[in-house]
């Protein structure tokens, strides 16, 4: 008779194959399959479901899946199964705050899925010279974004690419060299890094011909990380467009607690990767769904790439859905008076803590 460990490992391998080969039409079936797998093999998620007194056999639609509060990544090991943890992705935290940790058991799976998501929206990585302006992330070795971008740079095969802290003149020099080739230019930056680049006094006239040809992608990944005054996304994009001559600024939505990403080519309207889906909950009720396009609600994420942790995450972000029910906007954050989730967390001594941006 197969052991429990054998059953878990067989199901894990099967689910990974499904996720890597899935189409949009497969999402709900895989998500419901993943729900049964997760509550069976993830003790923390199972305890949460038991506290909510949820009948797992009655979870037969996406809307009925319970979402684990993201704070639990700060003070618990969120892991499904018992695969060896090779390392943890860790969120950036300001002084006095606890960082989230996301166990990584299969980094190759993360890389393949991240590459697939990017290329489905932007085309092959080999079409790009990639420049990553990520000062705050480069200061720590546990950033999922740095891990992903390092893989992307290697996969691009470009000798004109790399990471930059505040070497703005060197960055411009490298981009000028890249412009002599036929590849596109992708500058990926944390928001405050891009704004500091603009404020350094660079003259962006050098790339205006390439801008007109559609060869330049500037993408912000959000967050001032306490380095500058917080701006809303529209203000950031208008400032960057005015300085660079671009008609659109792209955005990436990801976080330590997710293995999948969403990208917005313009206007902050994100298209989630094939393994990711967003739902919205009422601000004052974590168990009531918001389905009307344009209405603001709390963002809940199903990330089917989170096989080894938890695919069902209740974030602290506020957002709205577009008419298609798939694309979404990120509009802000819950404040401390709008703590989501269930008081059972506190009643059972699980605890909560202030959240910070966790890309």
Number of helical regions: 12
C-alpha-based Rg, rounded: 21 Å
CATH class of the largest domain: Alpha Beta
Please provide the count of β strands: 15
**Beta-strand fraction estimate:** 15-25%
CATH fold descriptor of the largest domain: Rossmann fold
Largest sheet entry: 7 strands, mixed
In the residues, how many domains can be counted?
A: 2
Averaged pLDDT, please? Answer: 89
Shape: globular
Secondary-structure-based class equals: alpha/beta
Q: Main sheet: which strands, in order across?
A: 5-4-6-7-8-9-10
Helical content stands at 25-40%
Spatial separation of the terminal alpha carbons: 43 Å
> What is the H/E string?
HHHEHEEHEHHEHEHHEHEEEEEEEEH
Q: Architecture of the largest domain in CATH? A: 3-Layer(aba) Sandwich
Unreliable stretches (pLDDT < 50, length at least 5) are 337-359
């Amino acid at each position: 008779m197969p052991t429990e460990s054998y059953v878990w490992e067989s199901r894990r391998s099967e689910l990974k194959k499904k996720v890597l080969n899935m189409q949009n039409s497969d999402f709900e079936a895989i998500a419901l399959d993943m729900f049964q797998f997760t509550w069976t093999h993830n003790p923390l998620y199972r305890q949460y479901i038991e506290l909510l007194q949820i009948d797992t056999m009655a979870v037969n639609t996406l809307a009925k899946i319970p979402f684990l509060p993201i704070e639990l990544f700060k003070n618990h090991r969120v892991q499904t199964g018992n695969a060896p943890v090779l390392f943890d992705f860790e969120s950036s935290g300001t002084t006095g705050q606890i960082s989230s940790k996301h166990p990584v058991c299969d980094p190759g799976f993360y890389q393949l899925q991240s590459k697939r998501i990017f290329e489905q929206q932007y085309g092959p990585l080999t079409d790009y010279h990639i420049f990553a302006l990520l000062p705050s992330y480069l200061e720590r070795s546990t950033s999922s974004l740095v891990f992903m971008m390092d893989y992307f740079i290697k996969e691009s095969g470009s000798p004109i690419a790399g990471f930059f802290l505040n070497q703005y003149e060197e960055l411009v020099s490298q981009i000028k060299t890249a412009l002599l080739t036929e590849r596109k230019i992708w500058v990926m930056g944390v928001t405050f890094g891009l704004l500091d680049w603009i404020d350094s006094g660079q003259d962006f006239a050098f790339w205006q011909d390439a801008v007109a040809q559609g060869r330049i992608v500037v993408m912000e990944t959000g967050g001032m990380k306490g380095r500058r005054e917080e701006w809303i996304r529209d203000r950031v994009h208008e400032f960057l467009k005015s300085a660079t001559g671009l008609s659109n600024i792209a955005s990436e939505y990801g976080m330590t607690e997710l293995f999948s990403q969403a990208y917005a080519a313009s206007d902050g309207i994100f298209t989630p990767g094939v393994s990711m889906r967003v739902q919205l909950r009422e601000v004052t009720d974590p168990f009531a769904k918001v389905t009307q396009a344009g209405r603001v609600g709390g963002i809940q994420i199903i990330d089917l790439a989170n096989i080894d942790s938890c695919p069902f995450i209740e974030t602290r972000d506020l957002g709205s859905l577009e008419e298609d029910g798939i694309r979404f906007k990120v509009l802000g954050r819950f404040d401390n008076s709008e703590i989501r989730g269930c008081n059972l967390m506190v009643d059972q001594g699980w605890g909560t803590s202030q959240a910070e941006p966790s890309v």
